[in-house]
Amino acid sequence: MTAAEKILQIDTLRVDSDRDGQSVPIVRDMSMNVAQGELFCLVGESGSGKSVSALALMGLVQRQKGIRVSGSVRYKDEELITGDIGRFASIRGREFAMIFQDPMSSLDPVFRIDEQMKEALRRREKLSAAQERERIAELLTLVGISDVDRCLRQYPHQLSGGMSQRVMIAMALACRPDVLIADEPTTALDVTIQAQILGLLNRLRHETGMTIVLITHDMGIAAQVADHVAVMYAGRVVEQGTPEELFAQPQHPYTVGLLASIPRLDGPKLDLLPAIPGGVPDPKSLPSGCAFHPRCPAATERCQREDPPLAPVNGRPVACWHAEHVAQHGADFSESEHA
Ligand code: SF4
Question: What is the pTM of this model?
């Protein structure tokens, strides 16, 4: 990836939060590059730090009491974290947009869709009433809403989950963002609508050239739509690659576990899917050494003592002392607890 192709360059991004008089690391030294026009997936279980990373990229946690953000995020050629706060706010309103997990709690229940769409549009440009109507119709049509007039007359509670998420996406697109951050945008939806929304996001980025950072706990979603995937665990990125690379040769035991837990039609028939034992640790009391070691079938004594750096193994970044071995022989979760 050349410098010109990188729209976001994230280097050792860190978010710490004060809790009970203690400084707790929520995001730890996240480093990755996102290319112009790509769909980049951040994958991990709940509590792995994905959403806080996204909020930090949007500049939405920086000014909260008791939260400290450090490291570097460069958007095109501008530094956002240590740069001018006013400039970051202006970029956020015009060039970055975000869609959230639950559209029903993001839309304002007391205003019709028409008024909410107009407000979203006015953040970016001043148009005549006729131009506004035309642009809103264009946006709603783009996200697959066929009866635009009816949709505009409705209140959020009158829309289905899929329709609400489409409206949220249309509102996000109203500012013609260069970067769209989508935080679990399909979690609240059934699988059919989920597939439609993912297809829609994928189509829109091809049509508009925008870059999408998609946050999901579902490795299957990443496999379907991502160009590039970063796997997060306990606040840090533990492996990166294309979906093809990760599926063909995962090098971190956590990635192996996530992949093993996806149901496969072409695999052996299983009564129970393998599951990663235990849960994501509380950031207040991270395990010593590699934070994954209490759940890892490949852990050794060294893993309990030393935290592995994110370093290239077979040409891809991975944070595991035994990545080479895992790449060759895997990590066996079959004896773990079962879902
Ligand atoms: Fe497992 Fe050790 Fe690798 Fe951590 S460093 S993922 S504990 S093998």
Answer: 0.88
